[in-house]
Design goal:
The complex is a heterodimer.
Chain A lengths: L2 H27 L12 H9 L9 H4 L2 H30 L5 H27 L1 H5 L3 H22 L4 H17 L7 H19 L9
Chain B lengths: L5 H11 L6 H6 L13 H6 L6 H16 L1 H5 L11 H12 L7 H5 L6 H14 L5 H13 L7 H19 L15 E3 L4 H4 L3 H12 L4 E3 L10 H4 L2 H17 L4 E4 L3 H15 L6 E4 H11 L13 E3 L12 H11 L29 H18 L3 E3 L3 H13 L5 E3 L1 H8 L3
Parallel strand pairs in B: 1-2, 1-3, 3-4, 5-6, 6-7
Helix pairs in contact in B: 1-8, 4-6, 4-8, 6-8, 10-12, 12-20, 14-15, 16-17, 17-20, 18-19
The chains are: A mainly alpha, B mainly alpha.
């Protein structure tokens, strides 16, 4: 095991620990203690918040901005895939399993596509004056680091036997894992709580699930 | 501007460290500044300035939160745009959170993450209220409610005179000299409330609702002291004042032993009492509380009133008040009542939970400082009305009525604006 493996393992554990801390804190704080009498079904509202209301036809942020929405979805899938592969790579330090070549190339290609979409999102922020006007360094670091992490994951998965790529992969993984719970990337956790609160709010009021229009 | 009192500043900052539940922390940490909320906001749609993007309004509150509550915000504030709460930030907050948001919540349902932007705007307003930075005109509206019991400071004698006048009008209309608008009666089934704009400017809407009560043979009353359904304490962010106003109404219902509190046609008033009142007072209300629209639906369902929709044949369209529909869940209830009362309804586009605010929400109607902006964003609603081709716009909210009347005049729409009670009263079979 090389030093960068150890560093990556430590960063991974620390990152998980920080997210676990955020998670436990949010769970402990709990839901609002609403004293008003509910007129809708809270559980149905929460289900709706996670599923139906996320569909592109229900959100202007999706159906009015389909290219960005599509890019965002693919980019996020790439991030989740990269995180899974990081876990696999860390475990694989010990077990040394060789992934079949066809899988490696398929995964690499998928990640290359998501990387390009991530880059697209970053370029949009850089060139669109309006978006730039309220962006801060965190936006660029989070987007840039995540995109870079996906790119190096694609390379590492496709060419696992090149030592230089492996070293860069684990070093970049460390940087990503350090930033992940600190930057806006932490929305990976808060997103789910935001939907929960939204479903609770609109569910109690009977706004969600949305009734069919007359 | 004058310096912020350090003690008040600390109190404002303490609001962001609130740990009573996970809602605040969640929403303060969720926005990714994608900017896709921009086109859901009337202010941005109208003026196309970046400062009106809802994410910017979130960011100013979140940036202060980060400065005092997060690791990077404390140690590397520039990295995450963590800003101190100083005079400059506070002044910007006033313009963005009071002057550029109707708290309609349209951006909330369309946010790609699900950030409750209205909730954060309200939290920012609470901070400003702690620092004594509520726009003067809005504060004077709240002061009037606190001092006199109604936000227009209508003297009790004037109110009683108006009600007596409407009682005579009612008697003439139903041709029954026993028709009555009860005042301060105890043990009634219904304790009814009004928006003070009704006795002040639109008394005929009181007569319309009284006619519905008459047709339903309802036992009801108005209080001459606390009849005001509005609560601008919700909009100015001063929870103590909002609580006092809500408590006055709550206690008056108990004093007169009313069985049900009926919230008159007012979006934010219904919201502040129905959804926030029990939280302000810290307990569920010991009596039933519903809106006038829901009550009318009950009357129709139970056969207590009978309607003939052929009495309303003109083309009507519906303006959905944000606090009753998107934030109050009454989409179907309102349609049910209006389809029973009118024979020719055409919807605006968009409508229902997707509706656009009239432009007067969030306390905008009470803030003369932002009149120009308010009428500017109202152009979106004016265009919706014009495109619908309707001759009458119906809305169950007197604040919306006020804004729509101004839009009607400004944009020369040539429509009539009516409340639900008025259109239902037109269709009553006595």
């Amino acid at each position: 095991m090389d030093w960068y493996h150890i560093l990556a393992l430590v960063a991974f554990v620390a990152c998980c620990g920080m997210f676990l801390g955020h998670f436990i804190h949010l769970i402990r704080l709990g839901m609002p203690k609403d004293k008003a009498k509910a007129q809708g079904k809270t559980a149905a509202g929460i289900r709706y918040a996670y599923i139906n209301s996320m569909m592109p036809q229900h959100k202007e942020s999706a159906y009015l901005h389909l290219p960005t929405y599509t890019a965002g979805i693919i980019y996020h899938l790439g991030t989740f895939l990269s995180l899974l592969l990081l876990l696999y790579s860390l475990i694989n330090i010990y077990i040394g399993w060789a992934m079949p070549e066809v899988f490696r190339w398929i995964i690499g290609a998928c990640l290359l596509i998501s990387t390009l979409f991530g880059l697209g999102v970053l370029i949009k922020r850089l060139v669109k004056q309006e978006l730039r006007s309220f962006s801060n360094p965190d936006d660029y670091i989070s987007n840039g680091l995540t995109t870079l992490f996906q790119a190096i994951t694609a390379l590492f998965i496709t060419f696992p036997h090149i030592p230089a790529i492996e070293m860069v992969y684990f070093i970049l993984a460390v940087l990503f894992l350090v930033w992940f719970p600190l930057g806006k990337t932490r929305h990976i956790l808060y997103f789910f709580f935001a939907r929960l609160h939204l479903g609770y709010f609109y569910g109690r009021r009977g706004t969600w699930p949305e009734k069919s229009k007359l | 501007m004058k310096p912020i009192d350090p003690i008040k500043r600390e109190k404002a900052l303490a609001l962001l460290a609130d740990t009573s539940d996970s809602k605040l922390r969640t929403h303060l940490n969720s926005c990714v500044r994608c900017g896709l909320c921009a086109t859901s906001c009337m202010y941005y749609d109208k003026f196309h300035e970046a400062k009106y993007i809802p994410a910017v309004k979130v960011d100013i509150v979140a940036s202060i939160y980060k400065r005092y509550n997060t690791f990077l915000g404390k140690h590397a504030p520039k990295l995450v745009n963590a800003r101190p709460l100083n005079e400059e930030t506070a002044e910007e907050m006033v313009d963005l959170l009071f002057g550029s948001c109707t708290m309609c919540g349209r951006c909330v349902t369309h946010c790609s993450i699900g950030v409750d932007i209205s909730y954060l705007v309200h939290k920012g307003r609470e901070m400003l209220a702690e620092m004594g930075m509520v726009p003067a005109s809005l504060q004077s509206t709240v002061d009037a409610a606190v001092k006199t019991g109604n936000n227009m400071a209508i003297p009790t004698e004037e109110f009683i005179d108006t009600i007596e006048w409407m009682e005579e009008e009612l008697q003439d209309e139903v041709e029954d000299e026993n028709a009555h608008i009860p005042l301060n009666e105890e043990d009634c089934n219904i304790f009814y409330t009004l928006n003070p704009r009704e006795p002040k400017f639109f008394p005929l809407s009181i007569k319309a609702m009284a006619k519905i009560f008459y047709a339903a043979k309802e036992s009801w009353t108005l209080s001459t002291k606390y009849y005001d359904v509005t609560n601008y304490g919700y909009f100015n962010g001063n929870t103590a004042e909002a609580t006092l106003i809500a408590r006055n109404l709550h206690d008056e219902v108990l004093r007169l032993k009313g069985k049900r509190l009926i919230l008159g046609e007012c979006g934010h008033g219904s919201y502040a009492n129905r959804w926030e009142g029990p939280n302000y007072l810290g307990h569920p209300y010991p009596f039933d509380m519903i809106t006038a629209v829901e009550l009318i639906k009950e009357y129709i369902d139970s056969g207590r009133i009978h309607l003939d929709k052929s009495l309303n044949t003109e083309v009507v369209t519906i303006h959905d008040p944000c606090n009753l529909i998107r934030n109050g869940g009454l989409f179907k209830t309102l349609r049910y009542v209006l389809h029973a009362s009118c024979s020719n309804i055409i919807e605006m586009n968009p409508y229902g939970n997707d509706n656009y605010c009239c432009g007067g929400g969030g306390g905008q109607l009470a803030m003369s400082e932002y009149n120009e902006r308010r009428l500017g964003i109202g152009e979106i609603k004016a265009n919706q009305i014009r495109n619908s081709g309707a001759k009458i716009v119906i809305t169950p909210c007197h604040n919306c009525v006020d804004q729509l009347l101004q839009l009607n005049h400004t944009y020369k729409l040539g429509v009539r604006i009516m409340t639900v009670a008025e259109i239902v009263a037109n269709a009553l079979i006595l």
